[in-house]
Amino acid sequence: MNTDQHAEFADLQWDDVRLFRAIHRLGSMRKVASDQGVVVNTIRRRIERVETRLGLDLARRSVNGIVLTENGEKLLRIGQAMSDAAEWDLADSTKDVLVKPGQLTIACTEGIGTLWLTPRMSRLQAALPKMIIGLDFDYNLARDRTHEADVWLTFEQPAEPDLITSKLATVHFAVYASKSYIGRHGSPSTMDSLKTHKIVEHVSPGVRSELLDFLIGTDRPQGFIAMRTNSSLSQLWSVAKGVGIGALPTFVSEITSAVKPVPPNLAIRREIRLVYRAKAKPSPAILATVKWLRECFDRAIHPCFADSYIDPKTFIRDSGETNIVNIFPNTFDEMN
User: Which of the four pLDDT bands, split at 50, 70 and 90, describes residue 335?
Assistant: First the structure.
């Protein structure tokens, strides 16, 4: 590269080059934002930041999308020269991006990991037969996981830079009870009637337990909380055994009929976000894992993860390999 000819690009960074190559390839900020898993405003701010740092106009918007200026085209040529000179080998460039070499680590909540991902894990292992699959449960996914996991699922938008994040699914919650509990205590009908029932409460970092106070108030009768646990699996088992009723994600209706949704409608939802480090994006292991996760949460197949609430009573349970296996023995699966 002629350094005199391109002296105005002295402050150039490779991430800047990648951005403008993506703009040239896709032709619009919206498409670039989608490709990189960010919002359009992030791409716009990055362009403005690069232009300010270099003191050059690099791109302009037109009716046909975003168009590179002469300086932008020059930057594109420099980027191609940098790429050709580097002669990157994909295998070499991605072999060290994983937290633990030879292991692909996924971090998520215990409920999602145990109830939804674990029974589907064989499909990911088949896609990555030479790798160890690590599944790391955490009750506080709001903290920084960049040095602990390769891919993680969280309910919050990460604040750390250089992360690719995108919405994966929406989890809806409903009140659930077992047949045995309803036989002894009846079914709640209104929000206020919840006070006359026994509750199995899930409390852990990242779980908005204060919503119970918001929904029914803090004036509760003695014995209202029958059990309190930080485990999603423990909560589900306890509800299924008739210990009390509980607010559970509606995807449990695709897992078992040992519990069923009952009134009232909670109208509570949480968005699951898929997160991984930007530098790991070219990694075949990361690409395979992201593809697998999107298949696991495919809303066309599993309407429980749609943006809008869908009555879980309409879900079709499938015990085949394409869906989750039943976590309860058949004799306990009592709501058929």
Answer: very low
Q: What is the DSSP letter of 113?
A: I
**Does residue 271 have a pLDDT over 90?**
yes
Q: Which residues contact 256 (CB under 8 A, 6 or more apart)?
A: 240, 326, 327, 328, 333, 335
| pLDDT for the residue 2 | 41
Burial of 149 (0-12, 13-18, 19+ CB in 10 A): buried
Q: What pLDDT shows up at residue 133?
A: 97
pLDDT, position 171: 96
* In contact, 127 and 288? CB cutoff 8 Å: yes
**H or E stretch covering 108:** strand 103-108
| Closest to 134 in 3D by CA, of 102, 100, 105 | 105
Query: From residue 311, how far is each of 110, 147, 198 by CA, in Å?
Result: 24, 39, 23
DSSP state of 27: -
Instruction: Give the C-alpha distances (Å, rounded to integers) separating 151 from 69, 90, 109, 224.
Output: 37, 19, 13, 39
Q: By CB neighbour count within 10 A (0-12 exposed, 13-18 middle, 19+ buried), where does 328 fall?
A: middle
What span, in angstroms and rounded, lies between the C-alpha atoms of 279 and 164?
9
C-alpha span between 100 and 84 (Å, rounded)? 30
Residue 207 vs residues 115, 173, 247, 249: alpha-carbon distances, Å:
17, 12, 11, 12
pLDDT (tens digit per residue) in 194-231: 989 999 998 876 555 556 776 677 777 888 999 999 89
Alpha carbon distance 65, 76 (integer Å): 17
| Helix ranges restricted to H, 88-208 | 90-94, 110-111, 121-127, 179-185
CA torsion sign, 19 to 21 to 24 to 30?
A: negative
> 14-26 vs 29-36: helix axis angle to the nearest 10?
120
How large is the average pLDDT for residues 146-170? Answer: 88
